[in-house]
Design goal:
- By secondary structure, the protein is of the alpha/beta class.
- It has a single domain (16-282), classed as Alpha-Beta Barrel (TIM Barrel), CATH 3.20.20.
- The chain is 49% helix and 14% strand.
- It is built from 11 helices and 8 strands.
- An 8-stranded parallel beta sheet has the order 1-2-3-4-5-6-7-8.
- Strand 2 (43-47), helix 3 (64-78) and strand 3 (83-89) form a beta-alpha-beta unit.
- Helix 4 packs across helix 5.
- It is globular and about 55 Å long.
Length: 288
């Protein structure tokens, strides 16, 4: 029994473990990645935050350059700890933040210009994906329609530069996700390149819809997802906000959940969700 446990530990320590969606802000910052690494994490997708997190009020799309450059410097530091990939976000909540100050039409133009800027960073090899979506909270019909237009523009940018789009949206519903998949197709983007951040473990339904789920690693979600199929990614959505330490999930969570998969005999799925699916969606290499 002792030898068996030693073999399990030795094998599981070699697993490549990828957190698909994490932020670094004002709490642990790089220490969060050290925790992630010490728990067995090897690869992470770091996503930039809202303009308010950088004390910035963008008046034009190019103002997001300050956010993107700051984020890329942080990702460069992160790469001294684990393999980190930058995702440049124009968060859908910007429509509310900027719209209340500048008007919603102007806010939407700023956001679309910022998405084009993010696409240029991808073209230049500085980032691997962009982030868009639509509000997760109730908004006026005008704002909802503008948000869908912005998201469609993000899909067009991703189509042109050949990258994936992580999306932040309302809570999961089959109809809502089907609508988003159709918007992606209308923009000429394969829905498989659209990653639904903060997904439930509805792997079979997502496969029918076409979007790629990034399952939030809380509770038994990862195990439930593994019992449904192999077509998913996994994330913590760690926010790193000193006002909400540990939210949404702590940086050790994904490594722990992936190791649980390994110990329960789901080695092939652990590899699939942390390596093969990641490489397929983002076009990056996941290696030791």
């Amino acid at each position: 029994m002792e030898n068996l446990m030693e073999n399990l530990c030795e094998k599981s320590s070699k697993i490549l473990i990828t957190d698909n969606h994490m932020h670094l802000y004002n709490n642990l910052r790089l220490k969060a990645l050290k925790q992630f690494k010490n728990a067995g994490g090897t690869h992470v997708f770091l996503v930039s935050l809202l303009s308010t997190h950088y004390d910035l009020t963008p008046l034009k799309g190019s103002d997001f350059r300050e956010i993107f450059d700051y984020h890329l410097k942080l990702v460069s530091q992160a790469n001294e700890i684990v393999r980190a990939f930058p995702v440049l976000a124009v968060h859908p909540a910007e429509i509310t933040i900027l719209g209340e100050k500048l008007g919603y039409e102007k806010a939407s133009r700023i956001m679309m210009d910022a998405l084009e800027l993010a696409g240029k960073y991808v073209e230049e090899g500085k980032a691997v994906a962009i982030k868009s979506g639509r509000p997760h909270y109730r908004v006026a019909r005008e704002v909802w329609n503008l948000s869908n237009r912005i998201m469609e523009h993000a899909f067009s940018v991703a189509r042109d530069v050949g990258c994936a789009v992580q999306i932040h949206t309302e809570s999961y519903s089959y109809r809502g996700m089907e609508e988003i998949a159709e918007i992606a197709r209308k923009a000429g983007l394969n829905p498989e390149k659209v990653v639904k951040h903060f997904s439930p473990p509805a792997v079979k339904e997502f496969e029918k819809i076409g979007l790629f789920p990034s399952v939030i690693a809380g509770n038994d979600n990862v195990i439930i997802a593994a019992k449904e199929g192999r077509r998913f990614l996994v994330e913590t959505d760690y926010i790193d906000d000193i006002k909400r330490p540990g939210a949404i999930l702590g940086p050790k969570t994904v490594p722990r959940r992936v190791r649980e998969l390994y110990e329960m005999g789901y080695e092939d799925i652990a590899y699939k969700i942390c390596v093969e699916n990641v490489e397929k969606v983002y076009g990056v290499e996941i290696s030791v």
